[in-house]
From TrEMBL:
SUPFAM superfamilies: (Trans)glycosidases, Galactose mutarotase-like, Glycosyl hydrolase domain, Putative glucosidase YicI, C-terminal domain
Protein name (database record): alpha-D-xyloside xylohydrolase
Pfam families named in the record: Gal_mutarotas_2 (PF13802), Glyco_hydro_31_2nd (PF01055), Glyco_hydro_31_3rd (PF21365)
Domain Glycoside hydrolase family 31 N-terminal positions: 56-216
Keywords, in A-Z order: Glycosidase, Hydrolase
EC number: 3.2.1.177
InterPro entries reported in the protein's UniProt record: Alpha-glycosidase_related, Gal_mutarotase_sf_dom, GH, Glyco_hydro_31_C, Glyco_hydro_31_N_dom, Glyco_hydro_31_TIM, Glyco_hydro_b
CDD domains cross-referenced by the UniProt entry: GH31_N, GH31_xylosidase_YicI
GO biological process: carbohydrate metabolic process
A molecular-function term among this protein's GO annotations: carbohydrate binding
Organism classification: Bacteria, Bacillati, Bacillota, Bacilli, Bacillales
Annotated source species: Paenibacillus xylanivorans
Segments forming domain Glycoside hydrolase family 31 TIM barrel: 259-573
Recorded superkingdom: Bacteria
Domain Glycosyl hydrolase family 31 C-terminal residue range list: 582-667
Amino acid sequence: MKFTDGFWMTREGYHIQNPTDIRDIVQKEDSLTVYAATKYIRTKGDTLNGTLLKATYSSPMPNVIRVTLNHHKGGMKKGPEFELNHQDEKVDISKNEQGAVLKSGNLEVQIDKTNGWDVSFLYEGKRITGSGQRAAGYITGPSKEAYFREQLDLGIGEYVYGLGERFTPFVKNGQVVDTWNEDGGTSSEQSYKNIPFYLSNKGYGVFVNHPERVSYEIASENVSKVQFSVEGETLEYFIIGGDNPKDVLDNYTKLTGKPALPPAWTFGLWLTTSFTTDYDEATVNHFVDGMAERDLPLSVFHFDCFWMKEYQWSDFVWDEAMFPDPEGMLARLKEKGLKICAWINPYIAEKSYLFDEGMENGYLVKTADGSVWQWDMWQAGMALVDFTNPDAVNWYKSKLEVLLDQGVDSFKTDFGERIPTDVVYFDGSDPVKMHNYYTQLYNKAVFELLEDKIGKNEAALFARSATAGGQQFPVHWGGDCSSTYESMAESLRGGLSLGLSGFGFWSHDISGFESTATPDVYKRWVQFGLLSSHSRLHGSTSYRVPWLFDEESVDVVRDFTKLKISLMPYLYNSAVESTVRGIPMMRAMLLDFPEDPTTYNLDTQYMFGDSILVAPIFNKEGDVRYYLPEGTWTNYLTGAKVQGGRWISENHDFKTLPMMIKPNSLIAVGAVDSKPDYDFANDVSLHLFELADGNSAQAVVVNQSAEQELVVNVSRNGSVLEVRAEGAGKPWNLVLRGMESVSGVEGGSQASGANGVVVTAAAGASSLTIQL
C-alpha cells in the first residue's frame, strides 16, 4: 500500500509518524527495547502530547532476529498466529552511550542513537540491510485507521524473490504484492499461496509475522527500499541470516516448519479423471488399462470432483449412479498396483446431508447474528467448515476416515482461498487474519488424519492453497493454468517462487488445466512435468491420456515416466534433503550458484536436486536457449558434453531436452523403471560425470524410511579414482559416463555399457581403485 506522493509528500488523508529521536534503550537478558519520539526533543515540554514508538529486538534461534514495532500495545490481540518454533538462543547484548547491539549467531542488529533513527543488520560483520530515517512509520488514514510500515534498504544489484507462488516476473523488484489468497488462476497477479517471506540475493530473508494481508512495495514506492505494511498498531518481522541462500531457507523453515517427506509412490505419474468429464468405473478402467497396455507406468489414479453427486459437494459419498460399488472398484484398482486419490474441499453445499448435521452441531462458520454463513459461488448455498472448532475438526476427519477405510490413500485438498471476512469463528479468531490462515487449519486437519491413519512418511496431499508453514503438509500444485507455452512458463515461475518461500515439493497440471493443449504443447509439458518433483496429468473439460493427442505423445510419456522412476534413488535422497534443510527439490539457479550473477534472473530453467539442470522447451520448433555455469556439463539423455560459463542455443525433438549434469556429480540410478517405490539400493548404478583432478563426488542412497543404505564417495588424483562405499550390503556398480575403457580395476571388474565403462564391485567390497 502506498502512503506517499513521490519522495517528499504524503498522500492526502494520511499522516505518518516516524521514529526520529531515540530517547531510551532498555536492555533485558534476552532483548533490547528502543523508545523513539516521532520528533526531535529539545526541551522537557517537547515530551508532552507526542507519540513514543517502540522497537523490541530479540532472537528465537541462532541467526534469526525478531523485530517488533508498536505504537499502542494494550489492545486485545486476536488470533490466529503462525505457529513458530523457538530454541533457547543465548544472545549477546552490549549497550553504551552511542547505542546498542544484539547478536544472535553470526547475525546482529546495531542501533545507533547518535544519528536519529539508524538501525543496521549485519551478517558476519557485513551490513546486509537496515532501517533509517523516514523508514519505519506509524500511519493513520482518512478514516483514522492505523497502519504500521517498515522500509528496509535495498542495495545496488540486490534482487528480491519469493512471497509465495507468484506467477508475475520472477524477480520481484518493481512489483506491488499483497499477500491475500485468491482463486485467480496462474495468469494474474493473484496467488493461491501467499507467503509473507522474501529472499534476497544478498544472502538474507525477511519474514513478516502476520497471517493477514501484508502489503509490499518492492522498489516501487521507494525504489531503494522494500516496504511492507499491515493494518493495526503493531508490525513484527524477522531478519533471517545464513552463509548462503540455502542456509537462509534452512533457518526460515526451522522457524516455520520443515516439509514432511512424501512417500515414494507419490513421485510416480498421477492420472486424473479431469474436472467436468463424464466418467464411471468403466471409463476409469479404460484409461488405467490403456496405460498398462502401452507400457506407461502409472502410480496414482485421482478421482476429481464428480465422484460425488452434483450439488452435494462435499458430502464424501460416492455417486451411486456412477459408482455403485466404490469399495469393490477401489480394491480392483489397487490390485493393479495403483494408489488412489480423491478430490475434496472444505465447503458443504446446502443439499449435502452434512449441512444440517454441521449446522445443528455448530460445526460451520457463522455470521454475526448466529446464522450459518452461506453463498452460491461454487456450490449452491454452501457453508464453510469451522476448523477453529476442535469438534468440527474431528467431525470432518471422521467423514474422510470412511474414505480411507474404503481404500483411498490421499486427498486433493482443493480450494480454501475465497474465505469471507464478515464472519464469526468458534474460537473468536479475527476473520481478516483467518482469510489466509484458514488453509493452514484445513490442510493440517487432513494431513494429520492421514498420518494417524496411514502412518508418518505415508501421508500426502495434493493441495492448492497455503500460507506460511503450509510447507509442512506436502504436496502443493500450481492451480488452474492454461494449455499454452506461456502458461507453462508462468507455472514454472510460480513454482520457483514457491520454492524460494520454503516449500520443498511442487507440481502442476501437465499440459495445462483450461482448454486442451495441442500435441506439441502436451509433449513439451510432459517433459517438464516428469522432471518436476511431482507429476500429474490433469485437465478441465477433456481427458489427458496421451493417445488422445498422438502416438508420439505415448512414447514421450513412456520415456520420461521411466526416466523419472529410474532416477528415484537420486530424487528420493533429494527429497530427504528438502525435509532436513527446507530447500526445494526444484530450485531456482541462484540457490546453487549464488556467486554467479547471471543466475539471478533465470526463470526458464532450474536445478532438480543438486546435480541436474533442466531447461524446459517453450515452443513448437524445439528451440531452447539456456545458461550453464562454469564447467563441463553433460546431457544425461544424449551424452553430449557442453562447456559452461555461457549461454547455449540448441534444438531438440520431443525425446530430448537440456537435462544437464553438473560436473563432479555422482548420480544414483535405480534398476527399476516400472514403479517409483522400489528397493533403491539394490543393483543401483552410480553414474560419474566429469570428475576433475583433485575433486570428489558423493552419492547417498536412502530407503523409503529415509534411512541411508549406501554412501559412495569417489575421489580423483591424477589418473586414479579411489572409490569408497559404506553400507554396501547390496550389489551396486559405478558407471564412468562417456569413457570407453579404463586401464585397470582393483576390487572389482569392468565391462562396456551403453553409457560408458561399468565397474562392478566384488561381492561385499567397500572400495575400488580405478586406473584411468
